[in-house]
Design goal:
CATH class of the largest domain: Alpha Beta
Largest sheet: 6 strands, antiparallel
CATH architecture of the largest domain: 2-Layer Sandwich
Strand order of the largest sheet: 8-7-17-16-13-14
Helix content: 10-25%
Oligomer: single chain
Length: 245
Amino acid sequence: MGLLDSFEKGLERAVNGAFAKTFRSGIQPVEIASALRSELDKQAAVVSRDRILAPNTFLVRLSAADDEKMRALGPTLVEELDGLVKKHARTQGYSFAGPVSITIERDASLSTGTLRVESQTASVGNVSWRAVVDIDGKRHPLVAARTVIGRGSDADITIPDAGTSRKHVEILWDGERAMVRDLGSTNGTQLQGRKVSEAPLPPDATVTIGRTNIVFRIVAEASTPPRPPVPDATRAFDTRRGDSR
């Protein structure tokens, strides 16, 4: 059970019993998680009808007392916060312009029970959108308008699946829209569990050939890395009052 299991179950429990004494007062892990999720939702920018860009670099400022308690947990807390941010982004359909980074820092100006979250992302003008497919944990960029996938060495993406044809399926991408097309394979092609010969391919859809799942995604890439978050005194959360200031 993770530190943030309570958050994922609707905040029914503050923290599990092992940390009950540690977090009797002051900031609790679930409150950091809630603030990060709120920051994601507030700063997410709609780029187009199907694309929403969210910040990927976060700085969490805590009082000296709260920072000391969080540091006692080691890297576990940051790891779980990282997973929660990514899960919330997937649920909401947000895209990141780079790897997610979460830093917890002590701020002597904050009082116990108060935290501040600052975030940063690339500006929309510095972001390009790339089509990729995820296969067995590996990501393959679609660098051409037509990408052939199959078990043959002459396919653009070769997969070691005996249940697929040498050139089994192709993905067509014009920079805005994608299609999937079966290439006369022996065992056919499925899109979201339904057999297709040719069909539009929406983001995050799964194409299945043989025993292999191919997940199509459109991801954001920053042309220049985002700068570290700049302090913003307007976004501070006081958990003792349950509001922001």
